[in-house]
Design a protein that fits this description.
Low-confidence stretches: none
CATH superfamily of the largest domain: Queuine tRNA-ribosyltransferase-like
CATH class of the largest domain: Alpha Beta
Oligomer: single chain
Number of helices: 15
Helix content: 40-55%
Structural class: alpha/beta
Distance between the termini: 57 Å
CATH topology of the largest domain: TIM Barrel
Number of domains: 2
Length: 375
């Protein structure tokens, strides 16, 4: 069995080009992981997701444990077999969704008790149960259970959540045990407090984990705060381990975070935006709801390799969006994920060529110029 491993191929400033090797495949980093919340990347076939260049997708422990149930997925061969995605999968711990979606939740040292948003049934999620569920799903990278505090928040609340998350990380590591082909990542917490972030990162580093995530960002704070926290955390984390910024983000967030040493990203933004009429392109965002597109015969991007971007007119996409057609979300999600994966490939190539800063400036300039004028 291929052991879980990470190697750096090139660095350019703080930007890193690497590879994560696992039995189910290799993940090229920096990597964007499409979000497959309930065993599906919304509005996409898995074959499409793979063809766009995704090496790994994300599954959500909270949603899958509630429906269809982790034990059922295990009986049916695990999430890879269930969803027809034979390549690597990362599962989050469910902690963020417990905190944000569930009502009547109660957090104790033992774990979290919460009421399902699906049917109202009460569940208990301990660090050990989170790892057990992720094991039943048979994911390749599993995340520790943590308490994510929404920002802004008072320092005592942030510190309490950070300390609890550290104790839960130790329990998750013990529950995970030794699995050569898989990994468990710890999650750095500490809100927008520099000292707390430093303490969290240093303590997790001491646990000797196979990978590290930065959590509790992109939860309401300005981008500058997020970047400041990365400037603090990344130098503390071991260079020989992958770094994952959870739930981020916009193309600009990704570009700036790569420049600070982040290797992995996930976000619902490209799929959610696609279902709401918003397209990401090398010229910036295009809102297909706008009437200016109604008579525009041009595609979103005539140079794109993605048929959704290259072969359909803006007028047609506008019509689909305004008519509420399902095809609108399908085509725009396809375009958006294609753009995100193209951006990641561009970033990887730039790092290897030693011109990341210059290429990042060119990409940013393209967004700033904006969409070309309508005919």
């Amino acid at each position: 069995m291929t052991p879980f491993s990470f190697r750096l191929i090139a660095t350019d400033g703080k930007a890193r080009r690497g590879e994560i090797a696992m039995p189910r495949g290799t993940v090229r980093t920096p990597a964007f992981m499409p979000v497959g919340t309930g065993g599906t990347v919304k509005a996409m076939y898995m074959d499409q997701v793979r063809a766009l260049g995704a090496d790994i997708i994300l599954g959500n422990t909270y949603h899958l444990m509630l429906r269809p149930g982790a034990e059922r997925v295990a009986r049916l061969g695990g999430l890879h077999e269930f969803a027809r995605w034979p390549w690597p999968i990362l599962t989050d711990s469910g902690g963020f969704q417990v905190m944000s979606l569930s009502n009547l939740r109660k957090i104790t040292e033992k774990g979290v008790t919460f009421r399902s948003h699906v049917d109202g049934v009460v569940h208990e999620m301990s660090p050990e149960r989170s790892i057990e569920i992720q094991g039943l799903l048979d994911s390749d990278i599993q995340m520790q259970l943590d308490e994510c505090t929404a920002l802004p928040a008072e320092r005592p609340a942030i510190e309490k959540a950070m300390e609890l998350s550290l104790r839960w990380a130790e329990r998750c590591k013990a529950a995970f045990g030794d699995q050569p082909g898989k990994a468990m990542f710890g999650i750095v917490q500490g809100g927008d407090d520099t000292a707390l972030r430093e303490r969290s990162a240093a303590a997790l580093k001491d646990l000797g984990l196979k990978g590290y995530a930065v959590g509790g960002l992109a939860v309401g704070e300005p981008q500058a705060v997020m970047l400041d926290m990365l400037d603090v955390v990344c130098p503390i984390l071991p260079a020989e381990r992958p770094r994952y910024l959870m739930g981020v983000g916009t193309p600009d967030d990704i570009l700036k975070s790569v420049g600070r040493g982040i290797d992995m990203f996930d976000c619902v933004m490209p799929t959610r935006a696609g279902r709401h009429g918003l397209a990401f392109t090398r010229r910036g965002k295009v809102n297909l709801k706008n009437a200016r597109h109604a008579d525009d015969p041009r595609p979103l991007d005539e140079e794109s390799d993605c048929p959704a971007a290259r072969d359909y007119s803006r007028a047609y996409l506008h019509h689909l969006v305004k008519s509420g057609e399902s095809l609108a979300g399908m085509l725009l999600t396809w375009n958006n994920l294609a753009y995100y994966q193209s951006l990641m490939a561009d970033i990887r190539a730039a790092i290897e060529a030693g011109r990341f800063a210059g290429r990042a400036a060119e990409i940013t300039e393209g967004w700033a110029r904006g969409d070309i004028p309508a005919l």
